[in-house]
């Protein structure tokens, strides 16, 4: 049992190598002849064991690369008791964005600068030093780094001292950490500058950026200060570390990583120029900051026992992220976007969990690949959506008390899911665990069918599947807020539906009702026709999330064939005077998905229908941001312009976008960020080779992370096969950083015309793709597959992957099932839609 690691590392940035030595204090529980720990891609030739009495044993080191293990063999049995193991090792700073790796950037003078940095979750600490690389082997870490004199370096704990070690080097020693898991250890060395610390609830907080980017740190510093304070208060527990650094690194596989006290971000998720960054981009930064800080308690202080429980980390951090962003910016209505934005946490989870290839949120994990694959829309999105459902059902304060009790009880420890339920059961006096087991331990979610007869409400549940399966008879315990309107007014019934069919007599004739009251339930509702009409007639009495679910659920029923696209378009017309941005955004998103399956011959008619739906609201908001208008109005303006310019391909809109896109390309400060962003994408989707060249120039010269990313997105959107293939080529030659390669390719594949051509290139260069794209990001490529729904292309995709093994088979199976469902929608809707549009 390890209790403490004294770790010293010396990276050589120019040579891309490192040396290190670790001394691990252990308790030997029973007599052993071999000690087995994790290590991979490290060179280790020997080790030394020192017993409490001072006796020293030299150990032989044997590495097994397949098992990622190091075995230390003792010539004689080692007795039980405290001991310490000293292991010297060497490694390479890899370019795979995992373990201890090298990142680089070109500074203002045009010189290439190197950075050594880490990313350990899930199981890559073993690439930086030998360790027991499992979340419940918690220990104290004492880190020292040997760096060039005066060179910037950080780790989890505060810097304690710098001691010269000769030949221009110094040893930087950091304070001991709390007992924590190996995947949270971090160190970063390189040409960085840090802001002055701000003190939040006694904790110093800084933002660290590559040299030359310090002017982009203020936004994050403010958001960080707010979130740190707010979270400490919500949990009622002090921040568990001694400082917080937010560090922006130019190459990073994920959005950010919650290393205790040393949170690492990709640049777009931290560095902001408020003048040119759109609201969506700004919100992303606040979200990521809130999410990672939320982990300092949920994840770092209290950690899941094993990877099957990773949802305890990620679902909770996502849940807290929403709450914290909502607290900082109530005007953004964050929980609406949580449900509504295309690809958002909840809608993304609905999409995956409607597949027969879905999985339970909590799910057995035995290998590193399986651990990495757990970070998916079920863990994040379904997990946080069912927590939200439970919070709304139990009430804010009860839920918060349960959470605080859970964290206090298990501080510095590891937990399983039932520990959380025990705390919530105690706080609420209800059987929370019994309800939640049906959502966490079982795949899928229900569709609730609702009809009424006099004073009786009839409810029935069955699994909602994108491709129907009558034999699936599982059921859920569904916490529901039923809002029922009778002659005597509105009554809210708080119930848990447990049976497949239930009847509730409310004593008075039911006029209308909302079966997902508040709209927070993770289920779909199918209303009998007269009830749906009543709901539409009473729109003005519904909450925005309730109005949202009615339209969004209808789209889901189109996707699985129970309703027709025409029904959806018909219902959408009832939303013409809708005022909530998130509802429009969802609508525009669904219109875009439908556009993908509309046959070429119907496209003009379809575009006309879309324009007819959006025009009135789009005209109302115009093209100019108005001083002092609500943030959501700015967002809405962008959504509507994109809908008109991209889906409806409205000529006037495209013509008006063009000069604004040019303004953005020439000087981003000359135009409102949200209008500029929308104009850019409109021009890109309707763009030609000249536009492409202009975007490329802007991409190469962009001076903020968001602008650079935005021009890259624009380059991906020009729907021309030759140009799209050129962008695909850039993912191999460094023009696009490898951290972005996978999403770029996915985006290229989702284009209506050029997608199939990019798919064929991808298929032909697959081996190269697996070598160049960082392994942990590879599955992001699969996001582009569902759009390839032309039958012959889809068949080719399915045939290719039937013979191609991948490291994330679950994600792949899900994307392929979605693809098949899209092929089916296309086939179903071809004639139906022609009818409707006529
Ligand atoms: N712990 C994750 C980072 C991570 C993801 C590690 C996958 C290993 C595998 C981190 O807390 C996280 O969730 N980051 C998100 C951003 C967040 C706002 C949802 C990310 O990186 O996208
Ligand atoms: Zn997270």
Task: Describe the protein.
The N and C termini lie far apart (72 Å). The protein has 838 residues and is α+β, with helices and mostly antiparallel strands. Strands 1, 2, 3, 4, 5, 6, 7, 8, 11, 13 and 14 form an eleven-stranded mixed sheet that branches. Helix 7 (377-394) packs across helix 8 and helix 16 runs parallel beside helix 18 (673-685). The protein has 26 helices and 30 strands. The site of zinc ion has 5 residues, from helix 2 and helix 3.
Question: Notable features of this structure?
Answer:
6-stranded mixed beta sheet; binds zinc ion; globular; 23% strand; 26 helices; 838 residues; single chain; binds ligand BES; 42% helix; 11-stranded mixed beta sheet; alpha+beta
What is the residue-mean pLDDT, rounded to a whole number? 97
Number of strand elements: 30
Low-confidence stretches: none
**What would the principal axes of the Cα set say about the shape?**
globular
Distance between the termini: 72 Å
Strand content: 15-25%
SS summary, helix count: 26
Biggest sheet architecture: 11 strands, mixed
What class would the helix/strand composition place it in?
Answer: alpha+beta
Proportion in helices: 40-55%
Radius of gyration: 28 Å
What small molecules does this complex bind? ligand BES, zinc ion
Secondary structure elements and their pairing?
Layout: E1 2-12, E2 17-28, E3 32-38, E4 42-43, E5 46-51, E6 56-64, E7 69-78, E8 81-92, E9 99-106, E10 112-119, E11 140-148, E12 152-155, E13 159-166, E14 169-174, E15 187-190, E16 192-194, E17 198-200, E18 203-210, H1 218-235, E19 244-249, E20 256-257, E21 262-266, H2 279-295, E22 303-304, H3 310-328, H4 334-340, H5 345-353, H6 368-373, H7 377-394, H8 396-410, E23 414-415, H9 417-428, H10 432-440, E24 446-453, E25 456-463, E26 478-486, E27 489-497, E28 501-505, E29 512-514, E30 524-527, H11 529-537, H12 544-559, H13 565-572, H14 581-597, H15 603-621, H16 631-647, H17 651-666, H18 673-685, H19 689-701, H20 705-717, H21 721-733, H22 738-749, H23 755-764, H24 766-772, H25 791-802, H26 809-837
Parallel strand pairs: 1-11, 18-19, 19-21, 22-23, 24-30
Antiparallel strand pairs: 1-2, 2-8, 3-7, 4-8, 5-6, 5-8, 6-7, 9-10, 11-14, 12-15, 13-14, 16-18, 17-18, 20-21, 24-25, 25-28, 26-27, 26-29
Helix pairs in contact: 1-2, 1-3, 2-3, 3-7, 5-7, 7-8, 8-9, 12-13, 12-14, 14-16, 15-16, 16-17, 16-18, 17-18, 18-20, 19-20, 20-22, 21-22, 21-23, 22-23, 25-26
Ligand BES is lined by residues 121-122, 254-258, 287-288, 291-292, 295, 314, 317-318, 321, 372, 375.
């Amino acid at each position: 049992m390890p209790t403490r690691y004294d770790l010293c590392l010396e990276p050589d940035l120019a040579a891309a190598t490192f040396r290190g030595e670790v001394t691990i204090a252990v308790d030997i529980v029973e007599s052993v002849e071999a000690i087995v720990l994790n290590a991979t891609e490290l060179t280790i030739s020997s080790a030394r064991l020192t017993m409490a009495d001072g006796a020293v044993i030299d150990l032989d080191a044997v590495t097994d690369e397949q098992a990622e293990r190091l075995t230390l063999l003792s010539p004689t049995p080692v007795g039980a008791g405290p001991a310490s193991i000293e292991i010297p090792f060497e490694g390479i700073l890899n370019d795979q964005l995992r373990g201890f790796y090298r990142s680089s950037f070109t500074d203002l003078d045009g010189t290439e600068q190197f950075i050594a940095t880490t990313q350990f979750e899930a199981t890559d600490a073993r690439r930086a030093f030998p360790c027991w690389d499992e979340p419940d082997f918690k220990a104290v870490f004492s880190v020292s780094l040997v760096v060039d004199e005066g060179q910037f370096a950080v780790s989890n704990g505060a810097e304690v001292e710098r001691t010269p070690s000769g030949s221009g080097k110094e040893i930087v020693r950091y304070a001991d950490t709390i007992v924590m898991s190996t995947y949270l250890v971090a160190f970063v060395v390189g040409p960085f500058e840090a802001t002055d610390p701000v003190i939040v609830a006694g904790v110093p907080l800084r933002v660290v950026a590559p040299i030359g980017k310090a002017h982009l740190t203020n936004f994050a510093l403010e958001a960080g200060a707010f979130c740190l304070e707010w979270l400490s208060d919500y949990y009622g527990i002090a921040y568990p570390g001694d400082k917080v650094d937010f560090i922006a690194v130019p190459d990073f596989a994920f959005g950010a990583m919650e290393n205790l006290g040393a949170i690492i971000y990709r640049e777009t998720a931290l560095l902001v120029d408020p003048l040119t960054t759109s609201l969506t981009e700004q919100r992303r930064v606040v979200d990521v900051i809130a999410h990672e800080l939320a982990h300092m308690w949920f994840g770092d202080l209290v950690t899941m026992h094993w990877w099957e429980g990773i949802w305890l980390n990620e679902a909770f951090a996502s849940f807290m992220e929403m709450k914290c962003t909502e607290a900082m910016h109530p005007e953004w209505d964050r929980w609406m976007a949580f449900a509504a934005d295309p690809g958002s946490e909840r809608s993304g989870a609905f999409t995956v969990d409607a597949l027969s290839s879905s999985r339970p949120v909590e799910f057995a994990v035995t290998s590193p690949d399986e651990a990495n694959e757990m970070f998916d829309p079920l863990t994040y999105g379904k997990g946080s959506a069912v927590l939200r459902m439970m919070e709304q059902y139990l009430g804010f304060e009860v839920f918060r008390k349960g959470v605080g009790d859970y964290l206090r009880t298990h501080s510095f420890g590891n937990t399983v899911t039932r520990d959380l339920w025990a705390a919530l059961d105690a706080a609420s006096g209800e059987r929370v665990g019994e309800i939640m087991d049906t959502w966490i331990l079982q795949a899928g979610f229900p569709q609730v069918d609702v009809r009424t007869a006099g004073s009786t409400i009839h409810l029935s549940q069955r699994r909602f599947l994108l491709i129907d399966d009558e034999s699936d008879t599982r059921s859920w315990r569904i916490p529901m807020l039923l809002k029922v309107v009778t002659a005597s007014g509105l009554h809210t019934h708080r119930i848990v539906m447990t049976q497949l069919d239930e009847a509730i007599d409310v004593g008075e004739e039911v006029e209308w009702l909302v079966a997902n009251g508040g709209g927070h339930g993770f289920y779909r509702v199918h209303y009998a026709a007269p009830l749906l009409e009543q709901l539409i007639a009473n729109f003005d009495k519904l909450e925005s999330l309730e109005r949202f679910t009615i339209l969004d659920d209808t789209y889901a029923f189109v996707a699985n064939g129970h309703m027709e696209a025409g029904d959806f378009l018909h219902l959408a017309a009832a939303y013409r005077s809708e005022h909530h941005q998130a509802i429009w955004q969802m609508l525009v998103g669904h219109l875009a998905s439908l556009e993908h399956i509309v046959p070429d011959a119907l496209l003009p008619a379809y575009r006309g229908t879309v324009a007819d739906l959006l025009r009135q609201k789009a005209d109302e908001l115009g093209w100019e941001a108005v001083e002092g208008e609500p943030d959501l109005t700015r967002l809405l303006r962008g959504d509507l312009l994109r809908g008109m310019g991209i889906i409806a391909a409205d000529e006037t809109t495209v013509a008006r976008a063009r000069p604004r896109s040019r303004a953005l390309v020439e000087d981003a400060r000359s135009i409102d960020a949200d209008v500029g962003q929308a104009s850019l994408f409109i021009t890109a989707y309707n763009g030609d080779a000249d536009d492409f060249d202009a975007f490329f120039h802007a991409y190469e010269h962009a001076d903020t992370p968001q602008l650079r990313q935005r021009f890259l997105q624009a380059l991906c959107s020009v729907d021309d096969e030759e140009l799209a293939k050129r962008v695909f080529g850039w993912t191999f030659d460094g023009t696009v950083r490898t951290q972005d390669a996978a999403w770029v390719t996915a985006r290229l594949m989702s284009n209506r015309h050029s997608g199939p051509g990019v798919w064929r290139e991808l298929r032909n260069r697959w081996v190269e793709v697996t070598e160049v794209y960082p392994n942990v990001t590879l599955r992001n490529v699969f996001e582009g597959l569902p759009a390839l729904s032309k039958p012959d292309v889809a068949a080719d995709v399915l045939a290719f992957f039937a013979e191609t093994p991948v490291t994330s088979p679950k994600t792949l199976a899900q994307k392929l099932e979605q693809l098949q469902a899209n092929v089916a929608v296309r086939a179903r809707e071809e004639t139906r839609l022609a009818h409707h549009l006529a």
